Amino acid sequence: MPQEYKIPSKSVFYQEDIKKSKFIVHIAHTPDLDSAKAFIKSIGVKYPDARHNCWAHVAGEPGGSHVFGFSDDGEPNGTAGKPMLNVLMGSGLGEITAVITRYFGGIKLGTGGLVRAYGGSLNNAMLELKTQTKIPEAIIYGISEYSHQGLIENILSSYKVLDIEKTFTVQIDWQIKIDSREVERALAEIFEKTNARVEFKLKD
Description:
The chain is of the alpha+beta class. It contains 5 helices and 11 strands. α2 packs parallel to α3.
């Protein structure tokens, strides 16, 4: 059963200097892998002279391993992308991508120092992140007589409805975006309270 989860509501820009190296953090809402890749590419274009643009993403529902990804982008293996991914996974957020641009300041941080710098700067940036709740959505549709409109609207008022589209012709065509966890109960109630004269279905 899909569950609601938190996602970024706004992008974040954060910057800090660590032993003369500049770490620039960008965080964005990326609902899928394509948008995550596009965001990572846009940061690379923004800072073309940077030695490293390291990144990590949870580009979808948290907990789905297929949406995880990370890159050290030239930093020693395991010192940048993986610590960043650990921060994102630990946050419990979904649909999120972080890119950290590093400008080297002449002082080597060592592998442990890099892990702390990338993980720490992302943690600090996450403190500024605003979030919102993502509700798992489904679309149901059906056709009714005009005489059932008030009853159906009354039934729907007790559910978490995100959007309703109605097309008025000879009958009413309904398309309703609803919390997917409530679909089965909503379909059953509409069918029952209209005495089986209206049957809504889940859209594929």
